[in-house]
Design brief:
This protein has about 300 residues and is α/β, with parallel strands linked by helices. It is built from 11 helices and 12 strands. The chain has 3 domains: about 80 residues, Arc Repressor Mutant, subunit A (Orthogonal Bundle), CATH 1.10.10.10; about 100 residues, D-Maltodextrin-Binding Protein, domain 2 (3-Layer(aba) Sandwich); about 100 residues, D-Maltodextrin-Binding Protein, domain 2.
């Protein structure tokens, strides 16, 4: 039994004749007659009876009619559902990201996304380390990823901007104040566990500034590292966008600035809805710095 046969059957019943159905479906009448004969043969019963006043349903046809209507309607509903997703009018967008970006960068864009696509659902999946994020995308998880630029990536990559890294401690400073590398070298540090992606950033910054951070505490949570730092346990490095507003005066840039590029990337060309999300990110006001606005002597990690 084929969907086309059910559609022919319903068209005959609705139009009242085989010729009317053929005209409505833009097919030859013999094709309509042939498909109905095949359907009746498969069911083992006649469904339609020709008469002087047109086609009528047999008892078997009357029993078959509501079932055929439900199947054809279900098929149409399925097509419409897929079309709405393809056209970006409905569906889920699974966004993979790293934990600091999930809390510091993406939330401000969520309201804009909801206003543009109110019938969609935005699903965030965060990872502790960039390598776990990249492995998940390579493995086919999610629709699109947002995180640090991956190396040797074969799929589409779109830059979103640069997030600034800041050091946080117990003292308050003027907004925009800077910490000098010599101060960082002599300080105690709240460091991250190796499985936390920020540990990679700290190592890169320390290597570029030629010092070895002296650990007094370790954590796998940026929020915990910031709390420890404000309490005076040691300095902590974190994305500026992850520092709560009440602690903004405890955060200082490093020298001229330390920045990390964030990108939207995927394994292949994203679906229409995921592409809409990526386009929204590139046009939204994210807490990031454009590449053209980076200081000439900024450090990128």
């Amino acid at each position: 039994m084929q969907l086309r046969q059910l559609e022919y059957f319903l068209a005959i019943w609705e139009s009242g004749s085989f010729s009317g159905a053929a005209s409505r479906l833009y097919v030859a009448q013999p094709s309509v007659s042939q498909q109905i004969r095949i359907l009746e043969r498969e069911l083992g019963a006649e469904l339609l009876e020709r008469g002087r006043h047109g086609v009528t349903l047999t008892p078997a046809g009357r029993a078959f009619l509501p079932q055929a209507q439900r199947v054809v309607q279900a098929a149409q509903d399925a097509k419409d559902s897929v079309r709405r997703v393809v056209e970006g009018r409905k569906g889920d967008v699974h966004v993979l990201t790293v934990r600091s970006v999930a809390s510091g960068v993406l939330p401000p864009s969520a309201a804009r996304w909801h206003s543009l696509f109110p019938t969609t659902v935005l699903r965030l999946h965060d990872f502790s380390h960039r390598r776990d994020l990249e492995e998940a995308v390579r493995g086919g998880q999610g629709d699109i990823a947002v995180g640090p630029r991956p190396s040797d990536w074969e799929g589409p990559v779109v830059s979103l901007g640069f997030e600034q890294m800041v050091v946080v401690g117990p003292d308050a400073y003027e907004i925009g104040a800077a910490a000098e590398p010599s101060e960082l070298a002599s300080a105690d540090w709240v460091l991250y566990e190796p499985e936390q992606g920020m540990s990679e950033v700290v190592d890169r910054v320390a290597a570029d500034l030629a010092f070895t951070p002296r650990a007094v505490a370790r954590t796998d949570q940026v929020s915990a590292a910031l709390q420890f730092a404000v309490e005076g346990i040691g300095m902590a490095l974190a994305p500026e966008n992850a520092v709560p507003g009440v602690w903004a005066r405890h955060a200082r840039r490093i020298g001229s600035g330390v920045f990390r590029e964030l990108v939207a990337f995927s394994r292949k060309q994203p679906s229409q809805l995921a592409e809409d999300y990526r386009n929204m990110l590139t046009s939204a006001e994210l807490p990031l710095t454009a590449g053209r606005e980076l200081p000439p002597d900024a450090l990128c990690c």
